[in-house]
Amino acid sequence: MTASGFGTQFSTFSVGEQFFGIDVLRVQEVLRYQEMTRIPLAPAVTAGLINLRGQIVTTIDMRRRLGLVERPPEQAPMNMVVRTDEGPVSLLVDEIGDVLQPDGGAFEPPPDSLPQSMRELIHGVYKLKDRLLLVLNSEKVLDVSEFLQSRE
Amino acid sequence: MPEQQEIVREFLLESNENLDRLDQDIVELERRPDDKNLIAGIFRTVHTIKGTCGFLGFGRLERVAHQLENILSRLRSGDRQLTPELAALVLRGIDSIREILTAIESTGTEGSGDYDELIHILETAFSEEKAVRQAGPAPRSEPEKNGSAAETAIRVDVVLLDKLMNLVGELVLARNQVLQFNMQNEDGVLNATSQRLDLITTELQESVMKTRMQPIGVVWNKLPRLVRDVAYSCGKQIELEMEGSETELDKTIIEAIKDPLTHLVRNCCSHGIETPTERVRRGKTPAGTVSLRAYHEGGQVNIEISDDGGGIDVALLKQKALEKGLIKAEQAERMTEREGLHLIFLAGLSTARAVTNVCGRGVGMDVVRSNIERIGGVVEVLSRLTAGTTIKLKIPLTLAIIPGLVVTSGGERFVIPQASLLELIRLDGDTAAKIEYVHGTPVCRRRGKLLPIAFLNEVLKLRSHGEAARNIVVLQAEDHQFGLVVDGIKDTQEIVVKPLGKQLKGLAVYAGATIMGDGRVALILDVPGIGEKAAVMDNHREQSRNETQTAAQTLADCERLLLFRAGTFTRVAVPLAVVARLEEFPRSALERAGGRYVVQYRGGILPVLALSSVLEPDTPGEGQVLDPVPVIVFADGARGLGVMVDEIVDIVEEPVQVRERGDRHGLLGSGIVGKLVTDFLDVRAVIESTSRTWLHQGRTGDAPAVLLAEPSPFVRGVLRCELEISGYRVIEAASAAEAMERLRKHKPAVVLAALDLPPQGCAALHDEMRRDPDLAVIPTVGLAASREEAERQRGTLDDCQMKADCSAMLASIQRLAAAVAHPAPVERPVERPAERKDV
Hints:
Chain A is mostly beta strands and 152 residues long. Helices cover 13% and strands 39% of the residues of chain A.
């Protein structure tokens, strides 16, 4: 499946000023902010654990994952639960948007000027009428091994 | 055709099971060639496979099975006896069937293997009689016994069982919530209903658990064949005895012990049992015995794998380990028998003299141990030279639900698996148990022995939550016992263990997570992981101890400390050199101005601060001011600051051994003074907390800068304090490289550098500075650990002073700074406050 294929529907959300999309088929559900259990010694990008109907789900703070400033404490994040082969993982995002089906012609690969660390996190960009939709590479986003190693 | 696929899947499942049984049966048959029932059973199995694969259209498989069936049929009718050659042939046939089945499973076809030759060999096995009798008619065997089993048992996908288990876990949770709600209500109907719900849930939970249980025989079935093959290839005679194969274990555990068990049995056969000639020479029977025993004991399953072979040669093990550099000679000397035996678990060690396909690669035992420990099991080794070896595995019954102890630390909840728990010790103020320090390492006396201690909040880098009643949880990890200090102990609970996501792999301190009665997630501690992490901390501590040893040495000689008590801090020290005076003010002299306490003092106004407000900002306690109140005055004149304490305890002059840097605001760290743990006050932080501008009042621009190059952060902290209070701006550096960089940037008036400054000492820094025209004029004062050293080095540098002798150091700085045409130092006599103790 290529991200640029016409007809892909995206669940959208915003983190900071940026607007992202994930293939709607990969999104399991969207939840309001849940109480989390902190994980001492875990990389800071993993915000904690939530109980999703008996399943323990790791949450990843997208602000930290993208290297943005911390979310102000009064702003409760939303959980976007994404399916993976190893079970669901939740992304903590600022706001949830609509499901969009952009025109495949409006797709472009990430600009070359984008820093490498960011370029590998997105498949590309859809030029929507009023803003840009960044298509998230969810495998890469969920791979936080680099953070684990850098801790030791 | 999904239906067809379903049938094929069923067929594969069933056939694989049957084949496993066949292996075992044929080996058995070699021993009891006359057992008609056994032959009949084997025959029936092969016959079933043949029949089904014919039906499904697997022609090649059918032909192999058919020839096999022919042979078995002859054996069954008593025409022929089973010879070892024939047994090997039959086993080969079974292997081929397995091969084809694997191909079917992965590709859906019979694969490309050529079995014509095998079929021919099987065909001609009884060639001499072939003419006489064709393959015996396959009697439509009597309705098979497993027919009845099929009526009472069904196959269920493990995924479904896992899901059931999860749902039951959820139900338990919901039940707990209902019970909690019920406690707050007096409703009779609800009461009765919830009691029933409670009972049913418990029963359901137990039943679902049982569905996941399998007899250990499932794994053992494969072993007779393995033993036979290894024995055959090593030219040994080995009998396998099995006892307790009906002992049940959780499916996940069965899976986890499969490989370790196979490895251990293979080891027994290849390493343990001697060759027949060797055995006879030792006066044993030519055939060795490997025995497996499984039995329940106290909520655990014990599996013993024993052989009556040569035993483990501990001396040889040590020698090998020494050769490979895995242990040191003195370590080997000191080792107990048990520790010596445990060397077999070291990676990279093999005592086999030659590498074969079954042994000698030195991989394995370490993996066995880690696999067993991963599922919460323990491996023990017992061995007597020439008499044999027993390896004992202690395995938990199930991984899914375990009893755990809920503890709190740093405001978080954690669960400790009960299996690792030895005992609980309460640390109350007056009782016997308390934490003591052996050279900075915390220990606790437990029945006359010292138990190493780790603090859970430190291991997990959590915030400490005050002086809560603390408890020690005594834990067993591998061969070690240690105490883990936690804030609180809640209760024991049956918890459902759930794995952590892959994002958290590599965090060895957790074994998983669970959902508590309130629906929140709690982490389960991995006790060996915590032990290891704490041991890592020991290494750190080792480092910080080394660091502090230098600190202790450097500050040793004549460091004079003022000891006092403030709030909950019963023993706080401050270098006397930074103290201007000790005063006692009547309480009435305290006045409030600008929102804080002041006293009129020597014709000026001295701000006074309660130390507890800095050290314990959360505790309201400023109200209880003593009368008169002891005050430590730092510096004096217009810029003074008084610090109210509860009591001046003592002034001591002795070596300081600093344990580690603390992270509490207002303290530099803690150390041992007069054999007691003592906190070191961070005077600068205290002063800064009252007024940020205090230090630089009136001399922001012209404060002469001093570069302080010293590797120990603690020593830096102390010296910085003293320098700043004496009116210098301090630039810190930990190494020569850092020092050079900051020198170029800040151009300080004087450089203070430790003689042992990394990497090559102060002299090297001095030389480098001399080569740079900009820096050549800056005088360098060496900081020595002892007076003798200071004397020795004085000639090579501009000056050299002892780290502990602050006043001499300050005088030297002042002299040198004045000599060079740099900004003049503050005109401020350096006093020796120690001489003016007005208490």
